[in-house]
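We include this case.
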Amino acid sequence: MTTAFSRRAFIGGTAAAGAAALLASQPGAAFGLGAIPATAPLALGNLTSGGFIANLPPSFYSRPGLEGMPVIDYESMPVVNIMDHGAVGDGVTSDKAAFDSAISAINALGGGVIYLPIGRYVFTPPSGGSPNWWYQATISGVHFVGEGEGSVVVFRRPKMVTNGQEAPAYASGNGWQFVNATDVSLRDFAIEWLPLNMLRHSTTATALLVRTPESVQVLRMSIGNCQPGVLLQHASNCWMVDNVLRNGASDAYNFGGAKNSVAAYNWAESIGDDGFANYQDSALFPDSNTIPNVRFTRNTVISACYGRGMTLGGSHHIIDENWIENSAGAAILSDISTTSPATLIDASVVNNVCIRSTMEMRPDNRHLSSGGGYHGAIAFLNKVDTLTVQNNSVRGSEDNDIAIGITNWLGVTGNDIEIFGNELYAADGVGINIPSNSTLTGLDISQNRILENTGPSVALAGTATGVTSGGNYVTTLPSVTGSVSGDMTGFTTSLSTPYSDPYAPRRAEPSETSWADPQPQSTSGLTTVNVTSYGALGNGVHDDTPAFRAALAALPATGGVIAVPAGNFLLQVDPAYSTFRDTKITHHFAITERDNVHIVGVGASSVIVCASAEDQGVRIIGGQGCSVSNIAFSLPDRPDFRRNRALLEITGAKDVSVTDVSLSGASGSNLLIDTCTGVYLDNVTSENANMYGIDVEGSRQVRVTGCSANDNRDGGIQIGWVGAVFREAQFVHVDANTVDGSSEGAGILASSGADLLIDGNSVSNTCQAGIYLWGRAPEYPMYSADITNNTIVNACIGDYTYTPGAIAIHSIRESAGMTTGTFTISGNTIDTTPFSGIWVGGKSPIGSMLCQMNTLTISGNTYSGVGGSSVLIAADQQAKITNLTII
């Protein structure tokens, strides 16, 4: 390693004088310690006028997949109100003592309900090094019931106070840990950790951990900001139904060696590992027949950005009727420990939809080692005894559709495998892959549609005996290079092309090699239609969505302008028009796969008002040459819980622009640019978003200039890779923008990028770093970035800050220790931060994963009012940087 230092740089040095006073003076209440939001959700009415808790209706239990679910008779139980035991519920005061008192009271009654009315019930960090924010060694006959999302249990991390050196990691956190739990339920409330942390390899922040659960039910819960979510380890007779989990850095729902348990009708979105896991530890469960009858049914997984959609193990595990959209690894994977593995017995994978799976296999994923990955949207490994893969629809897999064995890793030794009636469309690979390391006895491949794949319909390189086939329609006939006995003649070629991937153009694009300087789109000379000509009133009360649809339909095929005059144009969600193929995320109004269509207002007085926090607002999907300009967007009632929904989303498009637009109050990010190429954003004003002001995911050739992103929750401007297609961000320029205020996040932050430029921005008053490069997960790592000529004032000042530097770089990693990335931090002005000016690491409150870099150059920066050292890079981190220069 070559290292150059100037006298000004002080690596790991002593804090500057006055740092302690600066830390103590920060206005913490302005950075995430607030009470109940102004627009609190209404109570569900679970507590009746008679003082008991209403039962769930019969319709809850009568749905398909819930057959045999035990009915909990809440109405017969005594009720203990948490407020009667001293709970404050103000989002600031610790309520742990009230929960201790309430559970003592309910135990004295022989069990019953602990009731959580509307409020935010805080659990502060435990003392004495305990990892548990609330701990019960044995809990039985206790049922926690709230009033919906307005009843929130909050687990709060400690404030980072260490200065002038790397801050110690948070303790591994279990929100609620129950060791032995019998006849327990959680129903109708929310759980979240503060602050939001989406770093996969970080200190844990589990929402609920039950070590030995028996007859535990988790029902209609809202869970966010966790790592991982709900863990019912070795569950027996347990049910998870109707829960929603968003923004988890690890698994969402985990049974792990379970038996006789069901997860049904749940939602998992934006997660860092598996959506639904049933990992089998062969050392604990060598006989799979001891852990039978787990079922994952009718669940939704969207964006499993490092793990898999669902994993299965044990015996008689059924995965059926699920929707799995965007997964880095396999959508469905058998997951049994690979040392002395047990046998997967009589598993069924039936009637699932798997969209854009194995996204880790893209060539622009620098983390992926040669030959790595799961090589299948539905994949199995090791020992298999009786397997049914039937009537699944697998669309747009980045690699093979079905893998019976993992190429270059672990094959399958198995018998009685049926692959029947599946739709396998448009994989960038083989339809059904049986690699050379697999040996099968009894294989049936029948009635499948294997169309538009780039490889053979079937690649059979292993050994298979007792093969039968018939009724398969394929684009390409099978390739058989292994040892096969039986019938492999049941394949007929077809010219049918039933599948249209809306993201195919963006997926096929090669990596960018030079800056293309995107420009605003022109509307000159285009046909113009006014929404008021089609019935829009703009009075903020009338549903103007039909008028927007009619105006769009009136445009010629060549495109045109949808004109929006002054007024408040209310958009409602109509289920008949709110969906688009291959996504479960719905919208108010969409322009789908149209070229040269433009939404143009007359300025800030033209306001599109979105009625629903649960849906995207206006959505432009696919197409080329579209724009939005001179208009405003708003969501009047921003929820407290993050929804991941944007007011304006542009996805899968090329050559688009957003100019002179203001956005406020989204339930997720205000403006989402998703999997686009050639984007120009100028004079966009974005404020009060529940996540990021401007979020650019998986996009290339993007310029964000002259924009203001103020007072957004998780950050002003975010650059990432987790879009509808996971892909490396390339040539994104963020210049001459203003970010003022971020209550829980950073100013400008990026988790992916090659040739990223952050230049000439003004960033102030941020909870985390003013500029923050971070590694969300090992996939699509940050590769090269220049952070130049920015002014950062008053950074890292929130009570929840975990970045000990006004410019921070954390957990940037390449595969297998390779260090090829290049980073420059130069010409920046850093003014007033309680911690260091620039930090690269390494050890921090949220994790200790070191950055791996080839070249890091820090030069020509100025520092004033810095509480720590000017530059903080610990010795172990320095060793991971091949060429480090500090001037």
Q: What stands out?
A: The two ends are 16 Å apart (CA to CA).
